[in-house]
Amino acid sequence: MKRTPLNRRTLLKGLGGVAIGLPLLEEMLISNAGAAAKTVPVRAFNVFFGLGIPAPLQTEGFEGVLEPLQPLADKLLIMRNVDQVRCDESGINAHFDGASGSFTAEPPDGEAKAGGPSIDQVIKKAHYPRGLPDGMVPTLIGGTFFRRSRVSRYVHSYNMYGTVAATIQEKPRDLFDRVFGTLTLPDSANGRTQRLRRSVLDSVVDQYRYYTGKNSPLGAASRARVADHLSRIRELEQRAYEMKERPADSPELPPRSKLLHGGPADPGGQGIDITLDDLSTEWRLMADLYALAIQTDRVRFGALTFLAAGERIRLTGDYVYQGKKIFTFDDAAQHNATGDKGCSHEWWHKFDEKRENTQLRAHAHMKMREVSYFLQALDGADSVEANGKTLLENSLITISTESGDGRHSDAKRELSGVFHAITGANGRFKTGQIMDVNAEGLDVYNTMLQAMGASHRLGPADRQMTPTDKIRA
Amino acid sequence: MLVLLVSFAVRPSHAATRTTAGLQALYDFNSTSGPIVTGLSRWGAALGLEISDPKAVKRSEGSLSVRGKTLIRTQKPAVTIIESIRRSGEITIEAWIQPAKIDQSGPARIITLSKNSSERNFTLGQDGDRFEVRFRTTKTSDNGIPSLSSGPKSLTTELTHVVYTRSRSGQARLYLNGEAAAEQTIKGDTSNWNRSHRLALANELSKDRPWQGTYHLVAIYNRDLTPDEIKRNFEAGAGAETTLAGDQPTAGEHLFETQVAPLLAKHCLECHDSSTRKGGLDLSRRDTALAGSKHGEVILPGNAAESPLWESVDANDMPDDRPPLSAREKKMLQQWIDEGATWSLETIDPAIYTHDRQAGTNWVRRLTVEEYIATVESTVGVDIDQEAREILPPDLRADGFSNTAYNLIVDLKHVEAYARLAEIIVSRMDVIDFAAEYSQSRKLTDESMRGLISKMGNWVLRGPVEDREVDSYRGISTTVASAGGNFKDAVGFILEAMLQSPRFLYRMENQRGDGGRWPVDEYELASRMSYIVWGAPPDRELLKAAEEGRLFDSAGVETQVERMLEDPRAIERSTQFLHDWLDLDRMDHLRPSPERFPNWDTNLAPDMREETIAFFKEVVWNQKRPLSELLNAQVTYATARLAAHYGLEPAGKGLSRYDLSSVPSRGGLLTQGSVLTVGGDDASTVTRGLFVFHDLLRGVVKDPPPGIDTTPVPTRPGLSQRAIATERIANRSCGACHSKFEPLSFGLARFDGLGAYHAVDEHGNDLRDDGEILFPGAAKPVSYGSSGELMDLLAGSERVSKTLTWKVTQFALGRPLVSADARIVDSIHEKARKEGGTYANLISAIVLSDLVQTTRTETH
Fold first, then answer.
1. E strands present in A322-458
2. DSSP 8-class letter at B509
3. Looking at beta carbons, which residues of chain A come within 8 Å of B480?
4. Predicted TM-score of the model (pTM)
5. How does pLDDT run across A161-176, given as a tens digit for each residue?
6. Which end of chain B is more exposed for a tag (fewer CB within 10 A), N or C?
7. Are residues B245 and B235 in contact, defined by beta-carbon separation less than 8 angstroms?
């Protein structure tokens, strides 16, 4: 791997760039924002990893593939036996069903449409019904992934109508730009032109306001879409005209991504070759940037994806954990196959609880290591808030995945026992436990929403909720 | 004679039935209590009439007598009637009435659609001993003057059938008791009809023109009935039963089609469709479902308790090995049987319920990247293709197409891109020249700028701009003026604002109403038409047709569509459909295993895509053949490289035409590399079969049952793909579903994963290309002997043809179709088929259908 975890401020020096100067970043860090704000803002993020952890392996606790989460054990509630069977959409690819149900607990409603909102968006709506404070990114979705045949495989934040809550940023540089980028208008240096261009924007805002107002001819979903557009215009306004000028000595841009993105990353579902080093390097940069966005309070809601549902990569490279070599990845050779049949997801298809499942274990362990990397980025000294706790402790971070099995042979088995872990959300949920919740995902999520102060409930309107109170603190 | 006729007319005549075509609203006064006079409405919810003073009326079944001063009016503007007449430009106002006295004038309002004594859309009134009708057009006063009157003494206190008609050409006529009584030309059109007027009886809305008498029937049509139709309505009598025109289902049909059929499709047809028929029961068809199983009837209409179907469901015995029905589903099934088990569909097609959860949600449509580029080009003449594709985020495919409205989201990147692109576009325009098309004045004065904004906005924003918009854009020019800017600066910045406005970037339409389907207005229709046919905005001719009200009748729409289909942009749009449908972007990312295909030339991928596009243009546009012949047309276009890959003798360097009539192995879309590569390197029979099943046959299958190892089995000497698939089909657990789709790929077995043709596979196994095809809904499979025969079967299949109709319609509407659309799609398909089944026929039928002519409204 080309990079190892860095000190936050050191990292910033290496990352900051196009839009924002280092001094400003330093100022923006919540740890430096002063103790003026005694209350901690509500935040909710969804962290998704592809393919899942077969339920039998979850029973091994930190002795098995969950080992990389152990350093955070006191700050996590690991939930086993969460049942997502209702997310099964008959006749549709199981990776897609399970992924779409992550954080929504409902079956998909289209190839790019979830069956309902994701928990982060419900919480956002409850706490910020009129939108987030100026200057914040309404929802940040990022990820390192390759398989993209259906959007729900890799996007994990859905608004109240079940459509994707924001465009996913799949390159670190794009994510950085989305969070910290200012707009450089061609003639913005010219004060007169800037004033005139603001009048253009004022007029545009007027038009969008009309279509979101009481005289709008639009239906509810359309109004919500136009309201989204309006909120982005306001963000643009802020960035173009109100953010501080960047200093001349701004650090350089994050490096360009070396990985495949867009269509080439998913060549006809056949999978791609990638080294562990390249994969981890890019993911960690993405995770650092996402964490930075939270630390600077530019983002309070969203989702981060490490590898898509049913991801198709042929991974190579030595996997070392805490100085010890765990495994050597070489999927295609170990499968003795090419194309999609040589990809790592085949280990999940071949899972057999009576066997050792060595390759699957190594992949799952590696995924936990990378998820843990992101979580730890929110748990350092730079992440301590006014109440003395870290962002990891104060936020609701839900970690989930697509399945509790990998074999597409039994929807019930595949969507039962789906691994979940949550953070304490500032004392709202128990932590430091591995708990068999034995509950439907819908009830678990609705209990979480209840604890987070959101009155909206996921799932069918006429369904009776069965609270899973044992997860609450 | 008149008395005789009237006494004949009061009683319903069983010989004559009332005409219903074009009927928009009907009041038969059969309700006898409550403050509301109920009625029927063609669109949306019925417009009830509220009686302001119930004591002033006496009601009995079939009549309402007004004995004192009152006002009977709709509780809200009669928007659906108004929109309908605005669009048609024609009307028939019909009433069976009996005036209480002769000395009523003003005219006294019998039926009125107005605001007060001087503003109306129409009024039928009594002026002493004559009837008077005021009908507003662009050539009359706001009061509908000049009016049309019947002659002196033509009005009596007897029961009278009075009808007013006005044709689009302006011919207005009054009929009394079936006979023409007066006529006059009323010039102009109805585009100026006020949308805020209410419909009222017995008085003006301002309550100062009361009328007394008895109503037996009031009807309003959006066309001028012929003299014969009027006579027939007269002969049918005042008490004749009438239903509204259209193909709207009854309550029982509605319950079956929207609730019961989807339930049966979801829970029962897996085992009880025409091909599986477990226990001898086929629940997919009306006749077989009602006939029952081998044990006898399973549905006893009117008696759920004794219906075996209900008993087994209620006891959770059925569905077998699947989750039981929910309490709500059971209750609904029970209600359906108890209410008579209405079965209004010939066959239940599971495919039409796939997206039903999305029904009822309207998504405003943002322009796709392609549409944005075309709109800029058409509106201001700037080619922004390169910059737009670089700066705008791409639109992602959802439910088969990249123009699916719910997925056309917007993020900061879009907003930033639209702002940047607006600057670039304006910088490339000759702003002064552009503005000169709308105003010769170059002054920054209020009057001058408002006039320019209004006219220029009408073009840029695809329809008239409202005062609030003019005010907003005018604000820009004021700022420019105050900053010392000139006319050019002002227009440039106004254009930048317009190019970022919601009316430019989205297709804004009215979506609010009473929850029913409403007709779209003329500008909304023009935009729908142009984006469907061209993927671009209305041109000046289409916008003019909207302005002049020429889109109000189907002939006017047809004329425009025919013209538009001659434009090269129609071809471009159709290839966008093709591109999305077959996901031709896939070809950009095709990366076959180099070990397996060491001779693969990466240039072949774009060649394959170009082949398919050129082939489509040849069949659809040059030869104008029915769409289904895309499956077996014996022609293709290939580069020399691709021809060699296919085993054809190369005919030239570039893309050349190849006649395949003597090449039995190739011909039709499914034999082209762009489609054959869907199966991956292994040429998966499952993936290829599912492609044909889903994308050509609209088939539906469920997940594999529990306990099945789905790991693909590799081929080897003695074990071909076909043999592996045959084992799967023979497997008890897999066969029920795999037999439906996997044999569809057998005809493609001789094409490898990259589309090259071989008689044997890499292990030397012989490759057979015969098989069977089971069309969804059919009871038995049909055999084919070769790939060519499979293509012919598909091309000749009604199911394939209808699937193409569904696909093109989905792309045209920008949303997945739901079961509520099924009846209309069926009529689109039928109409297109009768016209020849070509792409042009289909587009015309779509544009003329209710799916385009109307919108689903949401309540306020």
1. 324-330, 396-401, 420-423, 433-440
2. -
3. 196, 199
4. 0.79
5. 999 999 899 999 889 8
6. N
7. no
pLDDT score for A22: 46
Is A191 near chain B, with CB under 8 Å? no
Q: Are residues A187 and A277 in the same domain?
A: no
Contact B398 A411 (CB under 8 A): no
CA distance B444 to chain A (A): 15
Q: Is A219 on the interface with B (CB under 8 A)?
A: yes
From the list A110, A166, A410, the residue facing B816 with the nearest CB is A110
How far does the CA of residue A51 sit from the closest CA of chain B (Å)?
Answer: 16
Specify whether A112 is located in the same domain as A212: no
Q: How confident is the model at residue B35 (pLDDT cuts 50, 70, 90)?
A: confident
What is the number of structural domains in chain A?
2
Please report which helix (H) or strand (E) contains residue A46, including its range: strand A44-49
Complex prediction ipTM:
0.81
A14 interfacial to chain B (CB closer than 8 Å): no
Q: How confident is the model at residue B14 (pLDDT cuts 50, 70, 90)?
A: very low
Say if CB B627 and CB B620 are below 8 A apart: yes
Cβ–Cβ under 8 Å, residues B245 and B23: yes
Tell me: do A207 and A286 sit in the same domain: no
- The minimal CB distance from B680 to the residues A202, A270, A411 is found for A270
Q: What phi, psi does A364 have (nearest 5°)? A: -65, -40
A181-200 pLDDT, tens digit each: 766 555 555 677 777 888 88
A374 & A411 share domain: yes
Q: Which of A223, A242, A261 is the last residue before a domain boundary?
A: A242
B704 CB neighbours in chain A (<8 A) are 408-409
| Residues in chain A within 8 Å Cβ distance of B596 | 338-339
For residue B723, is pLDDT > 50? yes
Are A218 and B412 a contacting pair at CB < 8 A? no
Q: Cα–Cα distance between A166 and A235 in angstroms, integer? A: 13
Judged by CB atoms closer than 8 Å, whether chains meet at A183 and B358 is answered as: no
Listed in sequence order, the DSSP H helices in A391-470 are 391-394, 411-414, 441-451
Q: What is the arithmetic mean of pLDDT over A399-413?
A: 81
**Same domain as A323, residue A446:** yes
Assigned fold of B2-236 = Jelly Rolls (2.60.120)
CB-CB neighbors (< 8 A) of B476 in chain A: 196, 199-200, 203
Lowest mean pLDDT: which of B239-253, B378-392, B573-587?
B239-253
Same domain, A19 and A99: yes
Query: Does B2 have pLDDT greater than 50?
Result: no
What are A120-163's pLDDT values in tens digits? 999 999 999 988 988 889 999 999 999 987 888 999 999 999 99
Confidence class of residue A247 from pLDDT cuts 50, 70 and 90? very low
Task: List A residues 325-364 in contact with B (Cβ-Cβ < 8 A).
Answer: 337-341, 346, 349-350
Q: Do B493 and A229 touch (CB under 8 A)?
A: no
| Residues in chain B within 8 Å Cβ distance of A410 | 706-708
Query: Residue A90: what pLDDT?
Result: 67
Residues in A 52-71 with any Cβ partner in B closer than 8 A: none
Angle at B173 between CA B171 and CA B175, to 5 degrees: 160
What type of residue sits at position B795? A
Q: Is A213 on the interface with B (CB under 8 A)?
A: no
Query: Alpha-carbon torsion A46, A49, A54, A58, what sign?
Result: negative
Indicate whether A2 belongs to any domain: no
Structure tokens at B763: 């292990």
Chain segment B190-231, per-residue pLDDT in tens: 878 998 999 999 999 999 999 999 999 999 998 888 898 899
Last residue of a domain, one of A201, A219, A242: A242
Q: Sign of the C-alpha dihedral, residues B664, B669, B675, B679?
A: negative
The amino acid that residue A17 corresponds to is G
Nearest to A170 by CA among A199, A148, A201, A197: A148
Please check whether residue A270 touches B, CB under 8 A: yes
Q: Which residues of chain A have a CB within 8 Å of the CB of B414?
A: 167, 229, 232
A200-204: average pLDDT: 89
Is residue A152 situated within a structural domain?
yes
Residue extents of the structural domains in chain B: 2-236, 251-348, 369-390+399-507, 581-796
